[in-house]
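// run 5 | inverse folding | seed 20
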């Protein structure tokens, strides 16, 4: 059975030399875009290739129209996967050093193009190091394969769906950012503070325990149900600042067995490109 949500370091360790397993290092720091690449060059899981959030996992920003990390077109993304030796036979494992906040983006993108055999390394690089498993410094390469996408367009929604969903009591719109950013009290990234009216705060960081690993399934199930009620997953939409950390909440929901919700890739940074769209602040949910 493939790993489709999370994988422990001890479960990955026996497979690092298996050509049908691909490990992808997704370390990235907002504001220091080369830091992840430097960290990879210093030490990484043996055989892992490096994926840069803004070069490999994002498309072209169109000022005034897109968010900060728009999705790339499916064709170029599939070409990137092919170049890194990923096809339908490959089990993919993604990791970072921030609890899966970046690695979950690639996890979601692979599911978006129809590849379910992908899991996030629980605890990421810190957990791998703590286990004293092997590390490498030399850049890794994999023999190319041909990735054939089978797009699941239903996993993503656009701004028009969000506009309708936020007004519909049969839907739930959830904001994965930290509570101060949701309330508009500590916005240091985007030019407008606040949240989409009607959204509920579901900070992605609360999916993790103090060690940086995901909470047990039953705890995640209780947490997400308490936050979102019993709205079906297909009518639940997650967003964040730019469509990256919202994937962490999607991963938590799938891992908890609550179904697969939708993601709004444009997220807050796209929402605010149109000054006519409403903004809520504080704990205000309506509007």
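// decoded
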């Amino acid at each position: 059975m493939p790993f489709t949500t999370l994988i422990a370091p001890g479960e990955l360790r026996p497979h690092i030399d298996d050509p049908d397993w691909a490990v992808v290092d997704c370390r990235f720091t907002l504001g220091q875009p080369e830091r992840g690449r430097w960290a990879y060059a210093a030490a990484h899981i043996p055989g892992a290739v490096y994926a840069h959030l803004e070069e490999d996992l994002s498309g072209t920003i169109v000022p005034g129209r897109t968010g900060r990390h728009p999705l790339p077109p499916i064709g170029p993304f599939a070409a990137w996967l092919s170049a890194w030796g990923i096809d339908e036979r490959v089990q993919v494992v993604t990791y970072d050093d921030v609890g899966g906040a970046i690695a979950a983006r690639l996890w979601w993108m692979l599911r978006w193009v129809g590849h379910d055999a992908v899991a996030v390394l629980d605890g990421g690089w810190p957990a791998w190091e703590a286990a004293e498993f092997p590390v490498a410094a030399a850049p890794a390469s994999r023999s190319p394969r041909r990735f054939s996408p089978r797009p699941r367009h239903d996993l993503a929604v656009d701004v028009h769906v969000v506009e309708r969903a936020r007004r519909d009591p049969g839907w739930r719109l959830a904001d994965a950012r930290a509570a101060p950013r949701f309330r508009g009290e500590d916005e240091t990234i985007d030019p407008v503070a606040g949240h989409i009216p009607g959204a509920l705060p579901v900070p992605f960081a609360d999916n993790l325990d103090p060690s940086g690993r995901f909470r047990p399934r039953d705890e995640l199930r209780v947490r997400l149900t308490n936050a979102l009620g019993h709205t079906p997953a297909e009518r639940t939409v997650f967003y964040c600042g730019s469509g990256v950390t919202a994937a962490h909440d999607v991963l938590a929901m799938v891992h908890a067995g609550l179904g697969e919700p939708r993601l709004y890739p444009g997220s807050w940074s796209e929402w605010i490109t149109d000054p006519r769209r409403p903004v809520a602040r504080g704990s205000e949910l309506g509007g």
